[in-house]
Amino acid sequence: MSSEQKPPTVSAPTAPDPADRAARRAVTVFPVLVLVAGVLGLLAPGAFASWSVSVPYLLGVVMFCMGLTMTPRDFQGVARRPWAVGLGLVAHYVIMPGLGWLIANALGLPPQLAAGVILVGCAPSGTASNVVTYLARGDVALSVSVATVSTVLAPVVTPPLTLLLAGEFLPVDAGSMVADILKTVLLPVLAGLAVRLLAGRYLDRVMGALPWLSAATIAVIVAVVVAGSASAIRSAALLVFVAVVLHNGLGLALGYGAGKLARLGAPASRAMAFEVGMQNSGLAASLATAHFSPLAALPAAVFSVWHNVSGALVAAWMAYRARSAERTAMPSAAQEGLPADG
Protein backbone atom coordinates (compact mmCIF):
# COMPACT_ATOMS: atom_id res chain seq x y z
CA MET A 1 0.00 0.00 0.00
CA SER A 2 1.08 3.59 -0.44
CA SER A 3 2.98 4.94 2.49
CA GLU A 4 0.39 7.55 3.29
CA GLN A 5 -2.96 5.78 3.04
CA LYS A 6 -4.62 3.46 5.54
CA PRO A 7 -7.29 0.87 4.71
CA PRO A 8 -10.72 2.35 5.29
CA THR A 9 -12.31 -0.94 6.32
CA VAL A 10 -9.67 -2.61 8.48
CA SER A 11 -10.35 -2.06 12.16
CA ALA A 12 -9.15 -5.20 13.88
CA PRO A 13 -6.94 -8.21 13.26
CA THR A 14 -10.04 -10.38 13.03
CA ALA A 15 -11.46 -8.51 10.04
CA PRO A 16 -13.32 -10.64 7.49
CA ASP A 17 -11.63 -12.33 4.59
CA PRO A 18 -12.60 -9.70 1.95
CA ALA A 19 -10.70 -7.04 3.92
CA ASP A 20 -7.79 -9.45 4.24
CA ARG A 21 -7.69 -9.93 0.48
CA ALA A 22 -7.96 -6.17 -0.13
CA ALA A 23 -5.08 -5.48 2.25
CA ARG A 24 -2.92 -8.14 0.60
CA ARG A 25 -3.59 -6.62 -2.83
CA ALA A 26 -2.67 -3.20 -1.47
CA VAL A 27 0.72 -4.13 -0.06
CA THR A 28 1.49 -6.15 -3.20
CA VAL A 29 0.40 -3.75 -5.94
CA PHE A 30 1.34 -0.39 -4.43
CA PRO A 31 5.10 -1.00 -4.14
CA VAL A 32 5.11 -2.25 -7.73
CA LEU A 33 3.30 0.89 -8.86
CA VAL A 34 5.79 3.10 -7.03
CA LEU A 35 8.72 1.12 -8.44
CA VAL A 36 7.39 1.54 -11.99
CA ALA A 37 7.01 5.26 -11.39
CA GLY A 38 10.60 5.48 -10.21
CA VAL A 39 11.84 3.70 -13.31
CA LEU A 40 9.84 6.06 -15.51
CA GLY A 41 11.32 9.05 -13.70
CA LEU A 42 14.81 7.66 -14.23
CA LEU A 43 14.35 6.79 -17.91
CA ALA A 44 12.39 9.89 -18.91
CA PRO A 45 13.40 12.63 -16.47
CA GLY A 46 12.43 15.39 -18.86
CA ALA A 47 8.79 14.34 -18.65
CA PHE A 48 8.63 14.89 -14.88
CA ALA A 49 11.42 17.26 -13.86
CA SER A 50 9.28 20.37 -14.35
CA TRP A 51 6.61 19.00 -12.01
CA SER A 52 8.65 19.59 -8.84
CA VAL A 53 6.57 22.64 -7.89
CA SER A 54 3.50 20.38 -7.78
CA VAL A 55 4.89 17.96 -5.17
CA PRO A 56 3.47 19.80 -2.09
CA TYR A 57 0.02 19.92 -3.70
CA LEU A 58 0.20 16.24 -4.60
CA LEU A 59 1.09 15.42 -1.00
CA GLY A 60 -1.87 17.53 0.11
CA VAL A 61 -4.14 15.28 -1.96
CA VAL A 62 -2.70 12.21 -0.25
CA MET A 63 -3.16 13.66 3.21
CA PHE A 64 -6.73 14.76 2.39
CA CYS A 65 -7.48 11.16 1.46
CA MET A 66 -6.00 10.08 4.78
CA GLY A 67 -8.29 12.52 6.60
CA LEU A 68 -11.30 11.07 4.79
CA THR A 69 -10.52 7.63 6.23
CA MET A 70 -10.33 8.92 9.82
CA THR A 71 -13.10 8.67 12.39
CA PRO A 72 -13.42 9.89 16.00
CA ARG A 73 -12.74 6.30 17.04
CA ASP A 74 -9.12 6.74 15.93
CA PHE A 75 -8.67 9.47 18.53
CA GLN A 76 -10.69 7.68 21.22
CA GLY A 77 -8.12 4.90 21.09
CA VAL A 78 -5.52 7.36 22.39
CA ALA A 79 -7.58 8.13 25.48
CA ARG A 80 -8.15 4.44 26.18
CA ARG A 81 -4.46 3.50 25.96
CA PRO A 82 -2.35 6.62 26.57
CA TRP A 83 0.66 4.65 27.86
CA ALA A 84 0.95 2.42 24.80
CA VAL A 85 0.32 5.27 22.34
CA GLY A 86 2.79 7.53 24.15
CA LEU A 87 5.43 4.82 24.06
CA GLY A 88 4.84 4.36 20.35
CA LEU A 89 5.27 8.08 19.70
CA VAL A 90 8.44 8.36 21.76
CA ALA A 91 9.91 5.25 20.14
CA HIS A 92 9.05 6.54 16.67
CA TYR A 93 10.46 10.03 17.11
CA VAL A 94 13.58 8.86 18.96
CA ILE A 95 14.58 5.65 17.18
CA MET A 96 14.15 6.65 13.53
CA PRO A 97 15.73 10.14 13.71
CA GLY A 98 18.61 8.72 15.77
CA LEU A 99 19.13 5.88 13.34
CA GLY A 100 19.09 8.30 10.42
CA TRP A 101 21.86 10.36 12.00
CA LEU A 102 23.94 7.30 12.92
CA ILE A 103 23.62 5.72 9.46
CA ALA A 104 24.43 8.99 7.68
CA ASN A 105 27.63 9.32 9.69
CA ALA A 106 28.58 5.63 9.62
CA LEU A 107 28.29 5.46 5.82
CA GLY A 108 29.93 8.85 5.30
CA LEU A 109 27.02 10.06 3.15
CA PRO A 110 27.43 13.31 1.18
CA PRO A 111 25.61 16.23 2.86
CA GLN A 112 22.56 16.19 0.58
CA LEU A 113 21.98 12.45 1.02
CA ALA A 114 22.74 12.59 4.75
CA ALA A 115 20.12 15.31 5.25
CA GLY A 116 17.65 13.29 3.17
CA VAL A 117 18.12 10.13 5.25
CA ILE A 118 17.75 12.08 8.50
CA LEU A 119 14.63 13.84 7.20
CA VAL A 120 13.03 10.46 6.43
CA GLY A 121 13.74 9.46 10.02
CA CYS A 122 12.15 12.64 11.37
CA ALA A 123 8.92 12.17 9.40
CA PRO A 124 5.74 10.88 11.05
CA SER A 125 4.59 7.30 10.74
CA GLY A 126 3.45 6.05 7.34
CA THR A 127 -0.11 4.78 7.55
CA ALA A 128 0.61 1.77 5.37
CA SER A 129 1.77 0.50 8.75
CA ASN A 130 -1.89 -0.01 9.61
CA VAL A 131 -2.35 -2.48 6.76
CA VAL A 132 0.89 -4.28 7.46
CA THR A 133 0.06 -4.53 11.17
CA TYR A 134 -3.24 -6.14 10.22
CA LEU A 135 -1.48 -8.66 7.97
CA ALA A 136 0.96 -9.45 10.80
CA ARG A 137 -1.96 -10.15 13.15
CA GLY A 138 -0.90 -7.21 15.24
CA ASP A 139 -2.77 -4.61 17.28
CA VAL A 140 -4.39 -2.52 14.54
CA ALA A 141 -6.12 -0.15 16.96
CA LEU A 142 -2.77 0.80 18.51
CA SER A 143 -1.21 1.15 15.06
CA VAL A 144 -3.94 3.54 13.88
CA SER A 145 -3.71 5.62 17.06
CA VAL A 146 0.08 6.03 16.86
CA ALA A 147 0.00 6.83 13.13
CA THR A 148 -2.76 9.40 13.61
CA VAL A 149 -1.14 11.23 16.54
CA SER A 150 2.34 11.18 14.98
CA THR A 151 0.87 12.88 11.90
CA VAL A 152 -0.92 15.53 13.97
CA LEU A 153 2.28 16.24 15.93
CA ALA A 154 4.51 16.40 12.85
CA PRO A 155 4.45 20.23 12.51
CA VAL A 156 5.93 20.68 15.99
CA VAL A 157 8.25 17.65 16.05
CA THR A 158 9.69 17.08 12.57
CA PRO A 159 11.25 20.55 11.93
CA PRO A 160 13.17 20.88 15.23
CA LEU A 161 14.39 17.28 15.00
CA THR A 162 15.58 17.91 11.46
CA LEU A 163 17.33 21.11 12.54
CA LEU A 164 19.01 19.32 15.45
CA LEU A 165 20.25 16.29 13.50
CA ALA A 166 20.63 17.48 9.89
CA GLY A 167 21.81 21.01 10.65
CA GLU A 168 25.43 19.84 10.69
CA PHE A 169 25.10 18.76 7.04
CA LEU A 170 22.94 21.51 5.51
CA PRO A 171 21.22 24.74 6.64
CA VAL A 172 17.70 23.99 7.90
CA ASP A 173 14.95 26.63 8.01
CA ALA A 174 12.79 25.05 10.72
CA GLY A 175 10.22 27.86 10.70
CA SER A 176 9.57 27.52 7.00
CA MET A 177 9.37 23.75 7.40
CA VAL A 178 6.69 24.11 10.09
CA ALA A 179 4.63 26.24 7.72
CA ASP A 180 5.00 23.71 4.90
CA ILE A 181 3.93 20.78 7.10
CA LEU A 182 0.91 22.73 8.32
CA LYS A 183 -0.13 23.49 4.73
CA THR A 184 0.61 20.12 3.14
CA VAL A 185 -0.17 17.72 6.00
CA LEU A 186 -2.19 19.00 8.92
CA LEU A 187 -4.68 21.25 7.11
CA PRO A 188 -5.52 18.65 4.40
CA VAL A 189 -5.91 15.93 7.07
CA LEU A 190 -8.24 18.13 9.12
CA ALA A 191 -10.19 19.07 5.99
CA GLY A 192 -10.62 15.40 5.09
CA LEU A 193 -11.72 14.58 8.64
CA ALA A 194 -14.25 17.44 8.55
CA VAL A 195 -15.70 16.20 5.26
CA ARG A 196 -15.93 12.67 6.69
CA LEU A 197 -17.79 13.92 9.77
CA LEU A 198 -20.17 16.14 7.83
CA ALA A 199 -20.84 13.96 4.79
CA GLY A 200 -19.62 10.51 5.76
CA ARG A 201 -22.76 8.71 4.60
CA TYR A 202 -22.26 10.01 1.07
CA LEU A 203 -18.64 8.81 0.87
CA ASP A 204 -19.20 5.06 1.18
CA ARG A 205 -19.18 4.57 -2.59
CA VAL A 206 -15.80 6.21 -3.05
CA MET A 207 -13.96 4.95 0.04
CA GLY A 208 -12.63 1.94 -1.84
CA ALA A 209 -11.03 4.23 -4.41
CA LEU A 210 -9.11 6.33 -1.88
CA PRO A 211 -6.17 3.93 -1.44
CA TRP A 212 -5.72 3.78 -5.21
CA LEU A 213 -5.92 7.55 -5.59
CA SER A 214 -3.35 7.92 -2.81
CA ALA A 215 -1.08 5.29 -4.37
CA ALA A 216 -1.25 6.90 -7.81
CA THR A 217 -0.43 10.30 -6.33
CA ILE A 218 2.51 8.95 -4.34
CA ALA A 219 3.75 7.23 -7.50
CA VAL A 220 3.76 10.58 -9.31
CA ILE A 221 5.68 12.16 -6.40
CA VAL A 222 8.29 9.39 -6.62
CA ALA A 223 8.59 9.85 -10.40
CA VAL A 224 9.13 13.59 -9.96
CA VAL A 225 11.71 13.10 -7.19
CA VAL A 226 13.65 10.49 -9.17
CA ALA A 227 13.54 12.63 -12.33
CA GLY A 228 14.99 15.56 -10.41
CA SER A 229 18.06 13.57 -9.37
CA ALA A 230 18.32 11.15 -12.29
CA SER A 231 21.83 12.24 -13.20
CA ALA A 232 23.14 11.45 -9.70
CA ILE A 233 21.29 8.18 -9.14
CA ARG A 234 23.74 5.97 -11.03
CA SER A 235 26.57 6.92 -8.73
CA ALA A 236 24.58 7.12 -5.48
CA ALA A 237 21.83 4.50 -5.87
CA LEU A 238 23.67 1.63 -4.17
CA LEU A 239 24.76 3.76 -1.23
CA VAL A 240 21.25 5.12 -0.77
CA PHE A 241 19.75 1.64 -0.97
CA VAL A 242 22.11 0.37 1.74
CA ALA A 243 21.22 3.33 3.95
CA VAL A 244 17.48 2.79 3.44
CA VAL A 245 17.63 -0.96 4.11
CA LEU A 246 19.60 -0.39 7.32
CA HIS A 247 17.31 2.43 8.43
CA ASN A 248 14.10 0.51 7.84
CA GLY A 249 15.37 -2.85 9.08
CA LEU A 250 16.82 -1.52 12.31
CA GLY A 251 13.68 0.56 12.87
CA LEU A 252 11.46 -2.51 12.56
CA ALA A 253 13.66 -4.53 14.91
CA LEU A 254 14.04 -1.80 17.56
CA GLY A 255 10.35 -0.94 17.41
CA TYR A 256 9.46 -4.56 18.08
CA GLY A 257 12.05 -4.69 20.85
CA ALA A 258 10.57 -1.56 22.48
CA GLY A 259 7.18 -3.22 22.63
CA LYS A 260 8.67 -6.35 24.14
CA LEU A 261 10.67 -4.43 26.75
CA ALA A 262 7.52 -2.54 27.75
CA ARG A 263 5.66 -5.88 28.00
CA LEU A 264 2.88 -4.70 25.71
CA GLY A 265 2.25 -8.24 24.44
CA ALA A 266 2.94 -9.85 21.08
CA PRO A 267 0.20 -8.14 18.97
CA ALA A 268 1.11 -4.67 20.28
CA SER A 269 4.82 -5.36 19.78
CA ARG A 270 4.14 -6.21 16.13
CA ALA A 271 2.28 -2.92 15.77
CA MET A 272 5.19 -1.07 17.38
CA ALA A 273 7.60 -2.60 14.87
CA PHE A 274 5.73 -1.12 11.91
CA GLU A 275 4.87 2.19 13.59
CA VAL A 276 8.57 2.79 14.21
CA GLY A 277 10.04 1.33 11.02
CA MET A 278 7.63 2.72 8.42
CA GLN A 279 7.69 6.42 7.57
CA ASN A 280 5.63 9.02 5.73
CA SER A 281 8.17 9.07 2.92
CA GLY A 282 5.91 11.23 0.73
CA LEU A 283 6.20 14.05 3.25
CA ALA A 284 9.96 13.53 3.52
CA ALA A 285 10.32 13.69 -0.27
CA SER A 286 8.23 16.86 -0.46
CA LEU A 287 10.17 18.61 2.32
CA ALA A 288 13.54 17.52 0.95
CA THR A 289 12.66 18.83 -2.51
CA ALA A 290 11.42 22.15 -1.14
CA HIS A 291 14.11 22.80 1.49
CA PHE A 292 17.21 20.95 0.28
CA SER A 293 17.40 19.57 -3.27
CA PRO A 294 15.98 16.78 -5.48
CA LEU A 295 19.04 14.69 -4.60
CA ALA A 296 18.18 14.97 -0.89
CA ALA A 297 14.74 13.59 -1.72
CA LEU A 298 16.22 10.41 -3.23
CA PRO A 299 16.37 8.49 0.10
CA ALA A 300 12.66 9.19 0.62
CA ALA A 301 11.82 7.91 -2.86
CA VAL A 302 13.75 4.67 -2.27
CA PHE A 303 12.26 4.34 1.22
CA SER A 304 8.77 4.67 -0.25
CA VAL A 305 9.28 1.49 -2.26
CA TRP A 306 11.42 -0.51 0.15
CA HIS A 307 9.44 -0.12 3.38
CA ASN A 308 6.31 -1.48 1.70
CA VAL A 309 8.20 -4.51 0.39
CA SER A 310 10.00 -5.20 3.67
CA GLY A 311 6.85 -4.52 5.67
CA ALA A 312 4.88 -7.09 3.69
CA LEU A 313 7.63 -9.69 4.07
CA VAL A 314 8.04 -9.12 7.81
CA ALA A 315 4.26 -9.16 8.28
CA ALA A 316 4.01 -12.52 6.50
CA TRP A 317 6.74 -13.95 8.74
CA MET A 318 5.11 -12.60 11.90
CA ALA A 319 1.70 -13.93 10.90
CA TYR A 320 3.20 -17.37 10.22
CA ARG A 321 4.84 -17.42 13.65
CA ALA A 322 1.61 -16.28 15.32
CA ARG A 323 -0.38 -19.06 13.64
CA SER A 324 2.28 -21.61 14.57
CA ALA A 325 2.17 -20.48 18.21
CA GLU A 326 -1.61 -20.76 18.24
CA ARG A 327 -1.52 -24.27 16.81
CA THR A 328 1.05 -25.28 19.42
CA ALA A 329 -1.05 -23.81 22.24
CA MET A 330 -4.33 -25.42 21.18
CA PRO A 331 -3.53 -29.07 22.15
CA SER A 332 -2.24 -28.01 25.58
CA ALA A 333 -5.28 -25.85 26.21
CA ALA A 334 -7.60 -28.65 25.11
CA GLN A 335 -5.94 -31.11 27.46
CA GLU A 336 -6.49 -28.74 30.39
CA GLY A 337 -10.04 -27.96 29.35
CA LEU A 338 -9.17 -24.30 28.68
CA PRO A 339 -9.81 -22.03 25.71
CA ALA A 340 -7.00 -21.98 23.13
CA ASP A 341 -6.08 -18.41 24.01
CA GLY A 342 -5.49 -19.36 27.66
Topology:
Elements: H1 17-43, H2 55-69, H3 72-80, H4 82-106, H5 111-122, H6 128-135, H7 140-166, H8 174-199, H9 204-207, H10 210-228, H11 230-261, H12 266-277, H13 281-291, H14 298-335
Helix pairs in contact: 1-6, 1-10, 1-14, 2-8, 2-10, 3-7, 4-5, 4-7, 4-11, 4-12, 5-7, 5-13, 5-14, 6-7, 6-12, 6-14, 7-8, 7-12, 10-13, 10-14, 11-12, 11-14, 13-14
Report on the structure:
The chain has 342 residues and is mainly α. The chain has a single domain, classed as Na+/H+ antiporter like fold. 77% of the residues lie in helices and 0% in strands. It is built from 14 helices and no strands. Helix 1 crosses helix 6, helix 3 crosses helix 7 and helix 4 crosses helix 11. The longest helix has 38 residues. The chain is globular and about 60 Å long. The N terminus is likely disordered. InterPro entries: BilAc:Na_symport/Acr3, Bilac:Na_transpt, Na+/solute_symporter_sf. Pfam families: SBF. Keywords: Membrane, Transmembrane, Transmembrane helix.
Using brief descriptors, characterize the structure shown.
342 residues, mainly alpha, Na+/H+ antiporter like fold, globular
Mean pLDDT, to the nearest integer, reads: 82
Q: Output the structural class.
A: mainly alpha
Shape: globular
Task: Report the helical percentage.
Answer: over 70%
Number of domains: 1
Percent of sequence in beta strands: under 5%
Q: What distance separates the N and C termini?
A: 34 Å
Put simply, the count of helices is 14
- Based on the structure given, which CATH architecture is correct? Up-down Bundle
